[in-house]
Amino acid sequence: MNSTTLTLLVGLMAGIAAALLVLGSGDMTVLSVLLSAFATLPVLIAGLGWSNLAGAVAVVVASLVVSVVLSPLAALMIAATTFVPAAWIAHLSNLARPAEELGGPQGQMAWFPLSDIMLHLCGLVCVSLVILGVVIGYGEDVVQEIVERLFTILAEQNPEFQPDDDYRTDMISFMTRILPALQAMMWVTILFVAWYLASAIVRASGKSKRPADSIPASLRMSRLSLLIFGAGLALSFIGGVIGLIGSTISGAFAGGFMLAGLAMLHHRTMGHAWRFMALWSTYAAIIILFPLPLLVLLLAGLFDTARTSPLSPPGSNSKDQSE
């Protein structure tokens, strides 16, 4: 079996696996969100471990399967939000050029910076969610159904909970504005975690082209990301479609800055005896006190945009790089 045939076969298998994970997600539950997130893994693994061709074939096959089983519209939405971003991130991760072209040491490769990968990831999430919003006609009519379900659940738990019409209207308006930001933030986090897991799997299999990134040292957002986040935040205060797009942009890049703040915490606690307690307390606080700890991490990531990472010595794949 030649390399091209193997690449096509890998892409075919990855596409089928990705489609099955999406089709198995079913209704909107925690399990369905996890299955949709895991659907990026086969595409990422194909792209990271084999080639852009394998990733592209995986995207096409997965989209075709979803189109046949569900509908072309569903395939378009899932491809835009899941398959295509995964393939593009894999492509960027494998980009490299000789380090001497950038003024670095000879005989080494300079890989596409993680900060730029994050910039693309956040941008892809923004574009894909805007496309999704246009396709489904996102607005108060869509959110009203979500709010009514929420009120039904709350009423079942507490029969005394009987919101009046004004409260319902205010809640629908608020949720319409905040949901794009929350969804974008969540999807940036999911895609980054999927990229991290796929990179580890490909590296363990010996197929990885890119050396292990020192995530705590190199995960940061660029100054351009800071400008885009500020612009999105400003647009979010405008009404109508522009405000919804601004909310999506600010949410996506806020997710990137939160991840950067978390990476900074990992980096600053390295080598300290209290590292485990600090990290454990932070993750516990995120779960229990959401969203206050995320706001702190967001501010940390915003103030850390100027941080630069020293080049790791050649062949230094210490345990710190995988943390």
Task: Write a structural description.
The chain contains 13 helices and 2 strands; from the N terminus they run αααααββαααααααα. The protein is mainly alpha-helical and 323 residues long. The chain has a domain at 1-94. The longest helix is centred in the middle third of the chain and has 40 residues, at 165-204. It is globular, with a radius of gyration of 21 Å. The model is unreliable at 308-323 (pLDDT under 50).
Please give the structural blueprint.
Elements: H1 3-23, H2 30-38, H3 40-49, H4 52-69, H5 72-93, E1 96-98, E2 109-111, H6 114-136, H7 140-157, H8 165-204, H9 215-218, H10 223-235, H11 240-268, H12 275-289, H13 292-303
Antiparallel strand pairs: 1-2
Helix pairs in contact: 1-3, 1-4, 3-4, 3-5, 3-8, 4-5, 5-6, 6-8, 6-11, 7-8, 8-11, 10-11, 11-13
What's this entry about, in short?
This protein is mainly alpha-helical and 323 residues long. Helices cover 72% and strands 2% of the residues.
